[in-house]
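DATA SHEET
Item: assembly model
Revision: 1
Owner: S.N.
Input lines:
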Amino acid sequence: MEQYIIKGGISLNGEVEIGGAKNAALAILAAANMTNETVYIDNLPDVRDINALLEAMEGIGARIDRVDRHAVTVNGSSVENFIVETESMKKIRASYYLLGALLGKHKKAQVPLPGGCNIGSRPIDQHLKGFKAMGAKTRIEHGFIIAEAEELHGAHIFLDMVSVGATINIMMAAAMAEGNTIIENAAKEPHVVDVANFLNSMGARIKGAGTDVIRIMGVKVLHKTEYSIIPDQIEAGTFMFAAAVTGGDIVLRNVIPKHLEATSAKIMELGCQVHEYDDAVRVIAPQKLQGTHVKTMPYPGFPTDMQPQIAVSLAIAEGTSIVTESIFENRFRYVDELARMGASVKVEGNVAVISGVERFTGARVSAPDLRAGAALVIAGLAAEGITIVDDIYYIERGYENLDLKFRELGAKIEKVASEKEIQKFRLKVG
Ligand code: EPZ
């Protein structure tokens, strides 16, 4: 099992290149199966979740060619098997995007019930509600969701809660349904817009993505396209908080500053300076961070995927801060780990009360999920002494070369796989 080992206390300085958005890429890859022509996609992050989905797509007959590390071509014309059943698929949440894509094109799909990070119960009732409204029959059997329709027709769908996954999944199926679909109370996240843009570039007719009403006029066929995935705002935000906790000064390249506004606003409340450029952002941190309060909300609110990272920053900020998690009920599982590093955090239901401490001290901690794992790494970068983060498998689901990117900013961090390598690192950093 691999770990990250970190010698903390070094300010991060320099430039970092942000990769493509994992959560946009997952949906776009699934949607690429909806045409018989060859689709070219680049700015893909090379992370475990993406590679698991590509493997599953090959498993159902799609032809995937790796053009380079961040680009693929997908040809879905040979997809014949609508049962997605690789082991890796059970582990990733986004397996459900193949449901919308295959249902849209082939009117049937069978996908394992989604896994993914254990951050709450994560039902998919809203996805199924949308499919049913379009005329599909859905059932769950032997751990699979099965959806099929004689014919998919347009429908007027009002989502009970704002769901990124349900919005995208319904949009994909509706793109090839007969007639018009309206999704009300739709999610507005940048990756919803990116998936709509991608589908439109294949000939779909989707309007309103980025607002809470999306209108889709179904088309009979989709065609080839070349598409570049948007930058990952969560990876970017993670680096912004890493700069904040280490008193650093970093420039993030290949970002869309508009997508980072909620994060930038909070980073400034912490006392950092944020400078925005066309496709870059610079964060300059003060000596000591200020506490603040934050509540996670659907976009354009503060993202739940940045909640652990801001909590880590608040844990070494001046004063008492309150963090309210309003999207997932189980997203404070990192708090016990952070306590091992000296943080003082009390969790009551979906609220964490954080009393800022002077500093973290390095400890051995485990990543409980993807974003919390990244947050523990940035805590380690700020901590005095050595931190070891176990279970980095989770982190690698969504971050490409996290250790390398931090090293390029001056951090002392390495990926290790044995006690011997840990000892070697300790000797090296002194
Ligand atoms: C997506 O998950 C992301 N995953 C998550 O990122 C992200 O945290 C989340 O959106 C919120 O932004 C992917 O894109 C693969 P939701 P998703 O449907 O689509 C409830 C990461 O770290 N809900 O917007 O699963 C749900 O329980 C991951 O990269 C229902 O009740 O999230 C939650 O409380 C973690 N029924 C809320 O809605 C449903 O049918 C929002 O979930 C669907 C959702």
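QC remark: The chain has two domains: 3-19+231-429, 22-228.
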